[in-house]
Structure formats: structure tokens, C-alpha cells
Write the C-alpha cells for this entry.
Amino acid sequence: MGTSGALLEIEALSCRFGGLEAVANLGFSVRAGEIKAIIGPNGAGKTTLFNMIGGVIVPSAGRIRLGGNDIDRLPPYRRAQLGVIRTFQNLGIFSDMTVLENVMVGCHLRSHCGTLQALWRSPRSIAEEAVIRSKSFHLLERVGLVDRAQEAAAALSFGERKLLEMARALAAGPRLLMLDEPAAGVAHDAAVGIAAIIRELNRDGLTVLLVEHNMNMVMNISHSILVLDHGRKIADGTPSEVRKDPAVLAAYLGEGEDA
């Protein structure tokens, strides 16, 4: 029986690399319509967890459910088709394409025309391409890049590339949008802008799971926060609960329970 209102459920999840247990017996859920952050010191297992949910790494044990259905043995492309869409720390932008074309690539996950129809420029493929183009412009408008649509993606700043990757992820039609350090390496103003976009997307009903080191962003936009340390859950609650949790203080600051 699934957790009531949960879109994503993680049960007894573990990942071992030889003798190293990167994630150990982890369990948590992400409610539909919430923003949940995953935080923890370097080496806590955050990226490994993201990779297991996305299908890049096969768990050693445990279960991953989306909407009550097991997905832990599905390949990444099937999870993407089901709506598990993620971004990466190392941006995968196609620099030789335009900004618009990068977003259109994301839309093709939901396209219906086959390769032959596209090659022969059938009326159906032409009509679908027009829809994809329009949708891509709309998504660029949402992230504030519509004025750069026809420019080469290589001309964008690092922060703008972060926004472009987010737009491309949105183009794939996520049920669960997984953001891997969306504010890493960007200036303060850019981070504030990215946080505002995430908040707006969530207000429109999108469920977001993010790994992030920017604590101001995490505390300001998250409904709940999962804290990992050495692959284990040490806290899972609201920002106010996590902020004063002794185990979290100890993990981050090396302080004891009297801190």
C-alpha cells in the first residue's frame, strides 16, 4: 500500500560499490505537488540517490515507486517516458544548436511522428513541428530566455545555460522534475531568479525534487527537506524542523547535541 498522496516512494533503498555502501536502507516519499530538497555534506550519497531514481544506477536493494508503480528496474528512457525528468550538474547543452533548438530536442520525447514522416516532411510532421516550436518559445519565455531563442547556445552565460537546461527538461513533460544543483556556480541574483522560477512551476502543480547546496534557496522554497549523511537519512521534515535538528547540526558543523 503506497503512502497517501505520494508521487514518489523510496523503500529500503541501498547502493553498494564493492565494500562501500553509498546509500543505506533509505526510505522517504515525495508528495504530489511539493518541492522536496535533498541536502547533506559532500559524499552524503545525494548524487547516487538521484542516479538511482533516474535509472543511471541500479539499486543493490530496495524499491522505487512512481504513482504506486515499481520503476526501479526500468531503464532511464522508460522512466523519462513516465515523467521522471532530470537535469545534471554537468550541463548537457548542445552548444552548436540555437537556444530554441535545444528546447525543441526535449519536446521530441513526447512527439508522435516517426523518423520517416519527419524525413519526408509529411503534413502531420510539419504540423507537429509547429506545435513543438510554439511550446519551446513558451518555455523559453517562462525561464526568461525567449529574447535569446535564435542565438547559439554557446553564447549563453553559465547561469543562462542552467535556465536553458531547465526549459529543456520542462519540454519533456515531467511529472517529477529532478533538479541537480540548479543554483551551483551561479551568482546570487541568478540563484534568486532560478528559485523564483522553481516556485512558480510548483504553484502550477509541478512536483520538484532537488539536490542543492544553496541553503538560502533550500530553506526558502522547499516544503520538506531530506538530509543525508554517509548514505543514511538523518532528518526528514519541514525547513524549520531540519534547521534545528541536532543531527543535522552535527553533520554540517561537527557539533554535538548541546549546540
Notes: The first strand starts at residue 6 and ends at 17. The longest helix spans residues 123-142.
